[in-house]
């Protein structure tokens, strides 16, 4: 090494490491292209080879195997199946008419849901003083939020199969590892249950021997029956929000419905967005400084490209039932494909919504700076957009 850090051949150590790993990346690119992959090569920027390739950010949730029973089915995606998604886990659940997702709670995560099809009724108990509870009915476009640890249940109260997507504010959470009432009583001694539940040993011996998870049930009357106890007050903090009924923020190429802690106070860990992109539209280049973004596609097709710095960019195509995950701060945009509009529901792991779009960022700087930075003339800078484009037509 000489005094400027270069060795005899004129390479810095960093460049040599880069060259060695670039050779390895080159091999990887060659094998990817020989297998017919359309992935663009990554790591072509500065210090190539010094950074891991962008992780997989697509998961085909509705095509996964999941759990199936007489009362319904559930498919889940956690950090286990989808390592990039450390902050959010999700479940695609279907209940048959009358089917019940049994009484349970989640020790390490709050539960959010978006109803896609059918009619559902939830029950939830509030822990403060154990003197209030809520029963709410949900239709497509509605969301619910149950804080971490609140005991709840879900039932399909309609005559058709219901479908909803659940989101949890912890990627390590598993829907199949929650705290269910049947699992608990199956693992509690008879003499304790006799005293705590006031049931005879004969009746207790008929209780489920293991976790039931989803059970078949009768479609209940449309007016909810009263609580068993008559001294409970209704919960004063709404667990339900009609996101689909909220007025949209309109842009030339699509629209957004955004609900944060401001509109939905109990929802203190997440922001949710219902988004539609018109055929041919582009959700413009942007990023979110404060949160990861978890997307679940409802209808239509789109292509998402994520920019991960260090010369890394990667594109994947998405359709109904698929999940996309964008890490906090990573640049991204969405190109709508085909003639059917794209509809998706999005979760951010922050109750406050933050976004910076490329159009607004460029407009928040003086002309001469942008001209010098991009190497273009003042007249060309004048053509750049000045306002947020949101969704480009
Ligand atoms: Mn739950
Ligand atoms: Mn985004």
Describe the protein in words.
The protein has 393 residues and is of the alpha+beta class. It has seven helices and 27 strands. It has helices spanning 13-34, 181-186, 190-197, 201-204, 358-363, 367-374, 378-383, and strands spanning 58-59, 67-69, 72-77, 89-95, 100-105, 111-117, 120-126, 132-138, 143-146, 152-156, 162-168, 179-180, 214-215, 233-234, 240-241, 249-251, 254-259, 271-277, 282-287, 293-299, 301-307, 313-318, 323-326, 331-337, 342-348, 356-357, 391-392. The strands form four sheets. The chain has a seven-stranded antiparallel β-sheet with strand order 1-23-20-25-18-17-16, with no helix packed on it. A hairpin with a 2-residue loop joins β2 (67-69) and β3. The longest helix is centred in the first third of the chain and has 22 residues, at 13-34. It is elongated, with a radius of gyration of 26 Å. One manganese (II) ion is lined by residues 104, 106, 111, 152.
Poorly predicted spans: 1-43
Structural class: alpha+beta
Radius of gyration, CA atoms, in whole angstroms: 26 Å
Beta strand %: 25-35%
Query: What is the end-to-end distance?
Result: 56 Å
Gist of the model:
The protein has helices spanning 13-34, 181-186, 190-197, 201-204, 358-363, 367-374, 378-383; strands at residues 58-59, 67-69, 72-77, 89-95, 100-105, 111-117, 120-126, 132-138, 143-146, 152-156, 162-168, 179-180, 214-215, 233-234, 240-241, 249-251, 254-259, 271-277, 282-287, 293-299, 301-307, 313-318, 323-326, 331-337, 342-348, 356-357, 391-392. It is an alpha+beta fold and 393 residues long.
């Amino acid at each position: 090494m000489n005094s400027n850090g270069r060795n005899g051949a004129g390479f810095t150590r960093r460049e040599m490491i880069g060259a060695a790993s670039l050779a390895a990346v080159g091999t990887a690119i060659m094998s990817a292209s020989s297998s017919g992959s359309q992935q663009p090569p990554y790591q072509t920027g500065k210090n190539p080879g010094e950074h891991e390739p962008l992780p997989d950010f697509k998961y085909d949730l509705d095509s996964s195997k999941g759990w199936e029973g007489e009362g319904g089915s559930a498919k889940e995606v956690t950090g286990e199946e989808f390592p990039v998604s450390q902050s959010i886990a999700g479940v695609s659940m279907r209940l048959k008419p009358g089917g019940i997702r049994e009484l349970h709670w989640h020790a390490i995560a709050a539960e959010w849901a978006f109803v896609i099809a059918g009619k559902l009724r939830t029950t939830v108990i509030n822990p403060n003083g154990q003197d209030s509870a809520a029963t709410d009915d949900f239709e497509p476009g509605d969301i619910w939020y149950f804080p971490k640890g609140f005991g709840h249940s879900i039932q399909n109260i309609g005559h058709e199969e219901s479908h909803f997507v659940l989101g949890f504010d912890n990627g390590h959470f598993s829907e199949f590892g929650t705290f269910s009432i049947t699992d608990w009583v199956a693992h509690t001694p008879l003499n304790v249950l006799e005293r705590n539940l006031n049931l005879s040993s004969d009746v207790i011996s008929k209780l489920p021997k293991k976790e039931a998870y989803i059970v078949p049930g009768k479609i209940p009357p449309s007016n909810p029956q009263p609580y068993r106890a008559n001294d409970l007050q209704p919960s004063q903090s709404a667990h339900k929000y009609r996101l689909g009924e909220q007025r949209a923020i309109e842009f030339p190429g699509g629209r957004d419905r955004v609900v944060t802690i401001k509109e939905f106070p109990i929802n203190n860990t997440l922001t949710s967005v219902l988004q539609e992109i018109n055929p041919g539209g582009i959700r413009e280049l942007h990023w979110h400084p404060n949160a990861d973004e978890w997307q679940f596609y409802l209808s239509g097709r789109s292509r998402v490209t994520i920019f991960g710095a260090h010369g890394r960019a990667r594109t994947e195509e998405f359709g109904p039932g698929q999940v996309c995950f964008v890490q906090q701060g990573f640049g991204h945009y969405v190109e709508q494909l085909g003639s059917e509009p794209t509809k998706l529901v999005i979760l951010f792991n922050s109750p406050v919504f933050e976004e910076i779009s490329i159009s607004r960022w460029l407009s928040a700087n003086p002309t001469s700076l942008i001209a010098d930075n991009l190497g273009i003339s003042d007249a060309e800078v004048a053509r750049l957009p000045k306002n947020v484009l949101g969704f480009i037509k």
